[in-house]
């Protein structure tokens, strides 16, 4: 059975999207990007909400030219190789290969997807992840915490949820960004 992983870059105070849009220093660090590449290369399927998909579809068109840093070219290759499911009631079509649209989030369908998958899945975007968290589907939480406190925006964890987690891995980067991986008890 595959794991469902929720992972995003967050501010120190727990926001994945700041009111002003800027999460601060650390996320653009090549060392961090290379680590993320290596961490998520084994992922077989990305589950996205519409807005997250519209952000990530950029990787479909990144050229494989030698003028781009190796970590950027590698992430684009890895992203294009994975399956993608976009949950949206408004998106008319997708502009990336290996991508399908689902009109609603069905926890039972995701359970089946996890049970049948031979590679892990990720869920990206706080609104979609909140539905998976509420349904008890998320197995691991990967937080990339920047050095900034942003004071408001969209939170990594939804309100009204209680989770008891075990810290299974942590790493600090030279930029100050901290990676923390938690497993559901």
UniProtKB/TrEMBL annotation:
GO BP: riboflavin biosynthetic process
Gene3D superfamilies: Dihydrofolate Reductase, subunit A
GO molecular function: 5-amino-6-(5-phosphoribosylamino)uracil reductase activity
Any single Pfam family the record assigns to this protein: RibD_C
Domain annotation Bacterial bifunctional deaminase-reductase C-terminal: ranges: 3-178
Source superkingdom: Bacteria
Protein name listed in UniProt: Deaminase
Species assigned in the record: Actinocatenispora sera
Lineage per the UniProt record: Bacteria, Bacillati, Actinomycetota, Actinomycetes, Micromonosporales
């Amino acid at each position: 059975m595959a794991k469902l992983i929720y992972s995003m870059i967050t501010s120190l105070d727990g926001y994945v999207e700041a009111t002003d849009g800027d999460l601060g220093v650390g996320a653009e660090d090549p060392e961090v990007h290379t680590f993320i590449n290596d961490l998520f290369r084994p992922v077989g399927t990305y589950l996205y909400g519409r807005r997250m998909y519209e952000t990530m579809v950029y990787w479909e068109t990144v050229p494989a030219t030698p003028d781009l840093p190796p970590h950027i070219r590698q992430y684009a290759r890895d992203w294009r190789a994975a399956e993608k499911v976009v949950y949206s009631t408004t998106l008319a079509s997708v502009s990336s290969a290996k991508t399908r649209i689902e009109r609603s989030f069905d926890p039972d369908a995701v359970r089946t997807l996890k049970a049948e998958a031979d590679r892990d899945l990720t869920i990206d975007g706080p609104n979609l992840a909140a539905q998976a968290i509420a349904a008890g589907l998320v197995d691991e939480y990967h937080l990339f915490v920047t050095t900034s406190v942003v004071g408001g925006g969209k939170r990594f964890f939804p309100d009204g949820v209680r989770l008891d987690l075990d810290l299974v891995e942590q790493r600090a980067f030279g930029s100050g960004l901290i990676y923390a991986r938690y497993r559901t008890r």
